[in-house]
Amino acid sequence: MPYPSEPRLVVLHALGVKGVSAVGVVASATGLAATDVVALLEELRETGSVEHRAGTPAGWSLTRVGRKERDALLAEELDVAGARTAVESAYHRFLPINAELLTTCTAWQLRDDAGDEPVANDHADADYDTAVVRRLVDLDARSRPVLADLAAALARFGAYRPRLDHAVQRVVAGESDWFTRPLIDSYHTVWFELHQDLLDTLGVERGSEEQG
Prior knowledge:
single chain, two-stranded antiparallel sheet, 4 strands
């Protein structure tokens, strides 16, 4: 059985991965009911771990205290669950796929032309776009065993597979925004959050990692 994370941790961690977020976004990311998220956020605000920001974007975010608490809880969870080895192994298998995924996302946004600099992909060349989508589908298939092993170790990682499935299905159906568009659950958005989740869970700095 995968280890179930404590609700306090998953709320703190969702804010750490996503940044400033509304209650509904946190509820969607954690699988908790919105009423439970509100209660936890109010409790966390009382202890100084989160704050609510007005303005644009408005929402909840971690404080310095909350970030330290989240990091400590993540490290403790890995050891209590006995999941450190499994997550580290999955992370190292994730890295080469990640490198190819980033290259594929770039190919979706930009394409080589006759000039010296890449140009924006206007998606007028159906054959080109089809080839890039095939690359995404292949990488998605290769990522499935990695995601399955993560979800088998820690239950909270199980939330990523349905989100990636939804995004890739929309891309294959011809909805190009679901490939790389920010501010929606596009494939790149969800993948970026998965990557950040792995880094935070293992205490790895993004700039220090080796790509495969």
